[in-house]
## 1
Amino acid sequence: MTAAPARILETQALTARYGHVQALSAADIHVCAGELVAVLGPNGAGKSTLLRAILGLASTTGTASFHGTPLPRQDPVAVSSRGVVLVPEGRGIFGPMTVSENLQLGAYRLRSDKAEYERRLTRVLALFPRLGERLSQTAGSMSGGEQQMLAIGRALMSDPKILLLDEPSLGLAPRVIAEIMEKLALLRDEGLPILLVEQKAPAALKLAQRAYVLVLGRIVACLDPRDLSSHDDLAKYYFH
Ligand code: ATP
């Protein structure tokens, strides 16, 4: 009998509220080694809130654990030090700074370890050669797709142990979305677990091992994207 894969990230009864608004209700999800897991759901379903709750940034009950140990609350630096790194919705890059400076910021904890910095930079530029051609360009002058690549590249510069992405497809053309998703699949295949929050279900389902569906703050389904009937189930949740 083969052992079940190790759970890298796991939430148990994770609940989050903003004042009186309960935006997330008792969510149980997990990401195993080698997996890319999607969280899908319509506008306002609570997808970003789930990520904020995992990072300890929302008012929560329940737990979010990484390698079996609860993640700290209200201490984003401690969470990212453990290798749990978010690529936020809207990318969060610094527009007036150059591509190179944005990438340096991602590796700020390295201080003077130049060899390790170069190793990480080489990896990022191999994944996104277009960033290498634009190292001295201001980030804000790049296209939306290039900015999304930079946001992912900057996260990779911190050498994450798991990557959390909040709607990386936002505002991008289908061809660019496909390119970004292809890169995420490559990272997953290199051994980086990924939790991908997406409103655009078809793009995420193409590469996910498992997809949770979030509606009105509740996980209403856990789908196997290889199972064709799961795609019909998904439509039901989006267009109910
Ligand atoms: P989208 O796809 O539009 O980004 P989402 O699925 O990520 O949506 P959330 O942003 O997590 O959804 O929002 C979930 C619910 O919580 C929504 O009803 C939203 O209005 C509410 N909400 C989010 N942030 C706050 C806040 N800071 N204060 C009060 N309510 C909030």
Note: The pocket of adenosine-5'-triphosphate is lined by residues 18, 21, 23, 41, 43-49, 199 (CB under 6 Å).
## 2
Amino acid sequence: MFNMANKKDKRELTDVLLSAQKLYKPSKEFQKNTNFPDYEKTLKTAAKNPLKFWEEAAEKLSWFQKWDQVLDDKNKPFYKWFVNGKCNLAYNALDRHIENNPKMHNKKAIIWEDETGRVRKFTYLELYKEVNKLVNAMKNSGVERGDRVAIYMPNIPEIVFAMLACAKIGAMHSVVYAGFSAKALADRIEDAQAKILFTADGSFRRGKIIDLKTIADDAVKQAKSVKKVIVVKNNNAKVNFNKKVDIWYNDFVKGFSDVAHCAEMDSEDPAFVLYTSGTTSKPKGVIHVHGGYAVNVLQTMEYVWDVKGDEIFWCTADPGWITGHSYIIYGPLLAGITTVMYEGMPDMPKPDRIWKVVEKHKVNVLYTAPTLIRAMMKYGAKWPQAHKMPTLRLLGSVGEPINPEAWKWYYKYVGKSKCPIMDTWWQTETGANMLTPLPSAPLKAGSACKPFPGIIADVVDKKGKSVPVGKGGYLIIRNQWPGMIRTIFNNPERYIKTYWSQVKGSYFAGDVAFKDKDGYFWIQGRTDDVLKVAGHRIGTAEVESSFVSHKAVVEAGVVGVPDPIKGEVIKAFIILTAKTKPSDELKMELKKHVRKEIGPVAVIKDIEFVEKLPKTRSGKIMRRVLKAKELGLPLGDTSSLV
Ligand code: WTA
């Protein structure tokens, strides 16, 4: 049954209950000026008729042809939204602003800054032209509707050009986070059979250049589907250049027209694939579509982020994760506002860089992760206190549970006790914010509040029965929403098995949570096979399989253990081959090995050499038991333990 043994490492119940008593309400003035001042009424209206709510949302976008049905649920769980509608994600994010509103031409779409202080800005018209040139260049290189394009780039404007150009052609982008290794990139390219790859010479991190091109080169050696590599000159770094496949971005687009055709896509045509970690060592290619995804993301911009048309929005995620896709790129552009991109570390050259960027670019909405807030807390409140940040009106948190202490610090020192915090729970698979307050809602420090309008969420036991208030259980979504995952690329069986087979008729999120007496959700973390290290999603099985690929390792069990800043860090239990002697040098070597196999994103905090691992009768490693032992907690139900 559901195991609460790990409660302590996720969140102290007493802590939560204490913080659940205090409500943080927006000021009357603030509330009156939000898009939806009556929180409860907004939820009730949508709940009465969610399909109507979503249909009205769809009407805010431009369609080449209107849908004839909002939701088709005949072939469960392969749901279709806005059936027979024709549209395009990039058209809605960009072209329609240019075609419908001359005022949008000179409005800033992107403000970019990097660690070294370089700034580049693009108006909507400039962005439109850049994208069009790239569309024409890509088509000339044989990229067609339905093809896959891999993108392995830093957080720079060209990643936006590339993603939008793919969508405009009707090709699917597959963005791979630049903290992944050559092997991880190659696996993802192979799975998607991507024809071309976008990368850059490098990216600045803490004053050093990360050599992305060499990693991309290694990946391309393994992944044969790639015929061309387009390289952005970002750092003027010296890189290897293979003239047969490599071309500089500027040369690639040179001479192409800045007017381009936009593909009329079906609402349900895939717009992109984004690989994410799950229970097995093979990442899942999550598919999102042109219609429903755009509708859902835009709706959250208006409801959660309270966008009215002129905001400057800064989401500090990386474009390689879903948060970057939906809230650096598509959300702000669909809403026609300005997105801020920052390439670099948040504490460079000093711990007030974030607050400086907010002030300099007049940011109105700051959307970040608990791990960053905790890192800033460590430097001390004096850094945000030294900055008034008068333009800030709304804050956001995402990626992992935010502890009440970090929440309060964020609220007080960053938001100056006047900016509500939107703690948004959602996933790569959900496409957009799912459990979240709206700016008019009374908040509780550390709770993701209630489901977004039109969404029905619940906490249940293994049989799918709602559990009582205050009791932990599995988080599920009982109905459908337009931004939902449509399938796993080339693996519909896995889609059914992972999300729709645990609780009949409901989406199984893989998180544990409980609800309090006011219906507020408190997320406790993942069920035990996915890790969240500094908000980055990594599969335990992926890490284990990379350990096992080392010749000295027979078996590996990996768990997440709590960390005051990163939320969770990785601890590995390793069984060595009979002839291998355990040593500290070997630990170092194994850590390096995993870093090479998966990438710097997989930092191993600790390794312990063991004789055996706890297993079920069927041979599955019981990570839950490893973790409970590590943390000195009760083992919970061990009836299946051999
Ligand atoms: C976790 C990120 C608590 C959760 C958007 C989920 C959160 C996983 C929150 C998805 C939050 C995300 N509070 N936990 N506000 N937001 N999570 O796919 O465990 O990278 O299942 O998507 O992050 O991670 P992913």
Note: The two ends are 17 Å apart (CA to CA).
